[in-house]
What we know:
Layout: H1 3-7, E1 15-18, H2 23-34, E2 40-43, H3 51-56, E3 64-66, E4 71-72, H4 75-85, H5 96-121, H6 131-136, H7 139-149, H8 162-177, H9 179-184, H10 188-198, H11 201-206
Parallel strand pairs: 1-2
Antiparallel strand pairs: 1-3, 3-4
Helix pairs in contact: 2-4, 2-8, 5-8, 7-10
Amino acid sequence: MDYVDVLSKDTRIPLLFSYRRCPYAMRARMALIDSGIDFNVYEISFKNKPHEIIEISPKGTVPVLRLANKVIDESLDIMMWAYANGSSSHYSDLDKDVIDTGLELIRKNDHEFKLHLDQYKYFTNYPSSSKDALGGACLFFIETLEGMLNLNKYLLSDKISFADIAIFPFIRQFAGVDMNFFTSLKFHRVQEWLSDLTSSELFMNAMIKPRQRNASAQTEVP
C-alpha cells in the first residue's frame, strides 16, 4: 500500500505515519488499537520519506497522526487523543492521582531512562565505558518498575494502562540489547511483565504490517 492508496480511503479515518520498529510509533499504534480507534497506517521509509509527512510535520519523525482538522506529531499526545476519543478506554476510569503517577513514570522513561538506553544500545560509540556499565546505568528505572510491579500486575493497577503501553516498547529495546544480561537480572516482575506484553494480542495486532491490517495475516515481530 502506498501513500496514494491510503489517501484514496475514507479521509475521515485518521491516518498514522508510522515505522513498526520505532518505540514511539509502537506505543501510538497500541493506544489507538486499545482505544478502539479505526485508523489507517502509512509505513514510512527513513531513506525515502514521503514529502507529505514533511508538509504536515516539518520535523519529519514518526509517529504523526493526521486527522481531518489537525495533525498530532507527538506519540504521547496521540495516545491521549486516542483515549479521549476512543470507544473503548480504561483511561477515563483512572483517578487523577493514578494518572499523574503514570505521567511521571512516562516522563522518567522518555527523558532519564531513554538517555541511558540510547548509550547502552549504541555502546560501541562510547569506548570509554563498558557495555555492562552502560547497561547498569539503566537499572535505576528497571528497579523503579520492579517496585511498581510488586504492588500490581501492571504498572498502575491489575489492568494494563496507558503507562504500560507507553513504557513497554523501551523496556523491550533494553532487553533486546543483551537478552542474557536482561534475564540474569533480579528484576523478575519486570521480566514477567515484558513477556506478558510481548505475547499480548494488543502488541501482536500493533505489529501487523499496514497492508495486512484488514486481512488475516501473520505478524512480524523483529
